[in-house]
Amino acid sequence: MDKEKDLGIGKLTLFAVSTTLASGVFSLAGDFAAGGAHTLAVLIGWAICGFGMLGLAISFYRLSVVKPELSSGIYNYAKTGFGDYIGFINGWGYLISAILCPVSYVALMFATLGNFFDIFGDGNNLVSILVGSVYMWFLVFLVYRGVNQAVGINAVVVIAKLVPIIFSVIAIILLGAFKWDIFVENFAGAPDSAPLMDQVMSTVTTTVWTFIGIEGAVVLSARAKNTKVAGQATIYSFLSLLVLYIVISVLSMGVMSQEELAALGNPPMAGIMEAVVGPWGGTLVNCAVILSVGGAMLSYIILCTDSAYQPAQSGLFPKFLTKLNKYNAPSWSVLLTGIILQFFIIMLYVNESSYQTLYAVSTSTIMFPYFFSALYYLKLVIQGHGCDNGAGGKFGAWFAAIVGTVYGIWLLYASGWQYILITTLCYAPGTILYWWAKKERKEKIFGQRVDLVAFLLVMVVFVISIAMLATGAIQPF
């Protein structure tokens, strides 16, 4: 793999932007409104997300400098800091979250195509699933031919899909579509609206969803020129996207009322642009969504492949996932990614799931990896490590560690207990791979007491989840 360690800050930044800037940007205002959030709640939600995600991004950056040996750090940080089984759960959870992203993109892509061709319906009918599966396997084939080459292709795609997004912002400003009176109407909600804190909590899933993938450069750090470059790419991509998201949210809330935004179909931005410049504006956005999610699917298949390969290299996943083909791509990791993707795409059809439902589950699944990464950095800072690397010195280190960890706790709380239970439906079955890897390496299954305690806790919650699923108290997708 050494000859593939050539990804620079430019490609890694574009990769992180592409894995992050996908579908969420086109549905921000509509999804906020549909969740019951009014203008003030959305602004507070972005403020919390901005500080929290900044803490996480800086934590990723500083960890990449102080612990350069922990490449592909999302799972490795949890493994090093809290034990093998917690590391495995984080690695497996991250893989499932990454896989659910392109599955949700299939739903949105074909729902958008349904705006042009009725045969695709709402994006979850049989035709959508069949065509989506063919496209997915085509992308899997591209990754099979070489991961770094696929990253290069993706750099071109991300530049192309930025054009219509920037056009939308400029059109709203230049055409005077933003109205201050609409923006401040029911600023905190009508008297019968949900309490402000409930409105703020309803923004969590959407704000986090728009930043899933921001750690993509860190996940590919084993292929970077060095881990510091990967950390810098994470910071650059985060700051640029945060500004873009806030601008789009604010402008949209000045074009249409909360009730009008809530009533828009997928993708909501198409309805907003149709109101601004006419039907052709909606058509432009629909085309941009198809291009955006189509390119993002490639990014996430790359991410999923490395999320299976890297844990296998460290002994948390079975060895066969480390096998490389003649293109120097991890062939079995690519195949596993494709198989799991196909399974969830079929579930999309069976359960008639929506784009919003799938991204909510994906978001909840990634919250534990985010939390444990920040918690590990906090542990290092408390021990006196990682306090003098990067700008800000000790203050910057403590800021990143505390803010990132507190934000992780907030995410778990605000997402709701139902989604915490749903995550164990994904986590628990994956333990089979952990047992396989440990047996393969002739290692003790639970080498530390914390591993056994974590396993028992996951299994208890898994049983509770199964019972609630059987009674219909929760729905998985």
Summarize the structure.
The chain is mainly α and 477 residues long. It contains 20 helices and no strands.
What key attributes describe this structure?
477 residues, mainly alpha, 20 helices, 74% helix
Describe the protein's architecture and organization.
By secondary structure, this protein is mainly α. The protein has a single domain (2-417), classed as Amino acid/polyamine transporter I (Up-down Bundle). It is built from 20 helices and no strands. α10 packs across α17 and α15 crosses α16. It is globular. The chain starts with 8 loop residues before the first helix and ends in a 7-residue tail after the last helix. The mean pLDDT is 82.
Write the layout of secondary structure elements.
Blueprint: H1 9-20, H2 28-34, H3 39-66, H4 73-82, H5 84-113, H6 126-144, H7 147-174, H8 180-184, H9 196-202, H10 204-211, H11 216-219, H12 227-252, H13 258-262, H14 268-277, H15 279-313, H16 331-350, H17 355-382, H18 393-415, H19 417-440, H20 449-470
Helix pairs in contact: 1-7, 1-12, 1-15, 3-9, 3-10, 3-12, 3-17, 3-18, 4-5, 4-17, 5-15, 5-16, 5-17, 5-19, 6-15, 6-16, 7-15, 10-17, 14-15, 15-16, 17-18, 17-19, 19-20
CATH topology: Amino acid/polyamine transporter I
**Unreliable spans:** none
**How far is it from the N-terminal to the C-terminal residue, by CA?**
37 Å
What gyration radius follows from the Cα positions, in whole Å?
21 Å
In the residues, how many domains can be counted?
1
Shape: globular
> If classified by CATH, what would the architecture be?
Up-down Bundle
User: What is the average of the pLDDT values?
Assistant: 82
Could you state the CATH homologous superfamily? Amino acid/polyamine transporter I
Number of helices: 20
Task: Estimate percent helicity.
Answer: over 70%
Largest sheet: none
Report the CATH C-level class: Mainly Alpha
Strand content: under 5%
Total count of strands: 0
How would you spell out the order of helices and strands?
HHHHHHHHHHHHHHHHHHHH
Q: Return the structural class.
A: mainly alpha
